[in-house]
């Protein structure tokens, strides 16, 4: 299933994508919350669709697409998880995955636009596969890790490189700015993505391909990352693990190319849909 939410910010309603059309499932009586995921909500939704699928109202054509999950608890991001991206950033790879948290105040819809922070000089793009957790777990063993995965989501880990590398402290300074975590358009259940380790990952800047990679090049794969992350963070329904980005970010261009007001990024991953963001100057 491809779950979506639609409507004005703060007023979103649950929906579903069927045959490439958006349908309203408000009659289910539940939003796509963490509690929904953790209490068998996907099974209830499937039964509802069996009974009501032919009678669902379409979502209005011009209705905004919102964040597909109502209240993610946290986004745990994985840094430097593609060898080609390590080379282009100038960072040094580590013997274990690098983990950091993305601020929930950075959440943003798939077409809402991104605000370049005040005084930013190196705002960059990073298309990433996000793992959506479906049940609570800590110290998960790798053979059982996929049991905790509910599905996947498209994430662009917008980053301010100068804040990360030149302003002291941790990477979080350059990762959690407002609008820097666009998610969606869909939360896609894992049955629709049988091999998350073989998905095309792409991004265009003003119509020109910048990223054109594949999750086959992930250093640490979905089961490994899920198990590893659970050693340090309790994982709960609705949590997201963002798996890292392949080469093609602005920092890797010759010369580096960072985002400016008026730029448009379009990006996507096989099976997860695509997003499109207009860059805005701070204060607009």
Brief overview, please?
The chain is built from six helices and 17 strands.
Low-pLDDT parts are none
Beta content: 25-35%
CATH topology of the largest domain: Fumarylacetoacetate hydrolase, domain 2
CATH architecture of the largest domain: Alpha-Beta Complex
CA radius of gyration: 18 Å
CATH class of the largest domain: Alpha Beta
Give the overall average pLDDT.
96
Specify the helix fraction band. Answer: 10-25%
Within CATH, the superfamily of the largest domain carries the name Fumarylacetoacetase-like, C-terminal domain
Q: Name the shape in a single word.
A: globular
Distance between the ends: 36 Å
* Class derived from helix and strand content: alpha+beta
Topology as a string of helices (H) and strands (E):
EEEHHEHEEEEEEEHHEEEHEEE
Total individual domains? 2
* Number of helices, counting only DSSP H or I runs of 4 residues or more: 6
Profile the largest sheet.
10 strands, mixed
Give the tally of β-strands.
17
Mind explaining what this structure looks like?
Helices cover 16% and strands 31% of the residues. It has 284 residues and is of the alpha+beta class. Strands 1, 2, 3, 4, 5, 6, 9, 10, 12 and 15 form a 10-stranded mixed β-sheet that branches. A 5-stranded mixed β-sheet has the order 7-17-16-13-14, with no helix packed on it. Strands 8-11 form a two-stranded antiparallel sheet. The protein has 6 helices and 17 strands. The mean pLDDT is 96. The chain has 2 domains: 54 residues, no CATH class; 206 residues, Fumarylacetoacetase-like, C-terminal domain (Fumarylacetoacetate hydrolase, domain 2). It is globular and about 55 Å long. This is 2-keto-4-pentenoate hydratase/2-oxohepta-3-ene-1,7-dioic acid hydratase (Catechol pathway). Belongs to the FAH family. One of its GO terms (biological process) is small molecule metabolic process. It holds the Pfam family FAA_hydrolase. InterPro entries: FAH, Fumarylacetoacetase-like_C, Fumarylacetoacetase_C_sf.
